[in-house]
Amino acid sequence: MPTLRNILFCLLMAYFPALSVAQDDLMDMLNDMEEETTNYAFATFKSVRIVNAHSIELPAAGVLQLIISHRFGRINDGAYQFFGLDQANMRLGFEYGITRWLNVGVGRSNVNKTYDSFVKVKFFRQSSGKRVMPFSVVGVSGIQANTLYWADPDRVNYFSSRLSYSHQLLIARKFNEALSFQVMPTMIHRNLVATRAEDNDVFAVGAGGRVKITPSMSINCEYFYILDIPGYRYTANNFQNSLSLSFDIETGGHVFQLMFTNSRGMTENLFVAETTGDWANGDIYFGFNLARVFTVSNKEKKQEKAKKDW
Fold first, then answer.
1. Please, which pLDDT band fits residue 308 given cuts at 50, 70 and 90?
2. Predicted TM-score (pTM) of this structure
3. How far apart are CA 165 and CA 201, in angstroms?
4. Residue 218 burial (CB count, 10 A)
């Protein structure tokens, strides 16, 4: 006559192999889930600007970013101009994240009394794991309007003559926590140029990088090389290639960039196509960018909550 103890022992012996198989199946499922995870790169750059140029970073959806940019005078103006600090150029800009991959911006600077606007779209984001993408790719298209008084108001002047256009493809990779690099093929079109000896289109290739030195500080550098394309006469005014260096400090909701550059202008049509300063001659402008973010709408949180509720 089987006892209760014998019956329980037989049941456990029969159930244990099935439990072991189920445990193995569960572990396999967890491993499969880990393999399917996509890890995205983040904070390739700390700001939406490397120095003058756009970085691949965009404000988050529903976030408004204020950027105040100052460029003082040339350092080689000497002590009389307090090494450029007696003079100042400024741009006030706003950028807003419509979605995670789309943002728009507007700004106004006193250099040529320029108004500017742009659209910035993220096409690809660097990732590893299930989805492998070695680079982040962003497109930027902008328009700039020079609103200075006409040099000759008595002649026929067209509003279209005030406009310039810029188009860039930003290709960046974050190699590790300390090093990021970005390449920027660029095209500038100016509806009106100074002389017949100068073409309306300018083609350039920019490169920029970031080296992180502490958790909240980094050194940035960017350079734009104007391409000498056969048939394009761009050297008439002896413009220089733009070279800029910055020291970035992150302080909570602010990113503070201290910089040195040979570019007086702060919009693409000026610092890419019409830089006149020469580093070798001391034509260097000290300046800064101050960026501050404001959360206007928690779009991402609302979208995540809606998915959970659904």
1. very low
2. 0.82
3. 10
4. 24
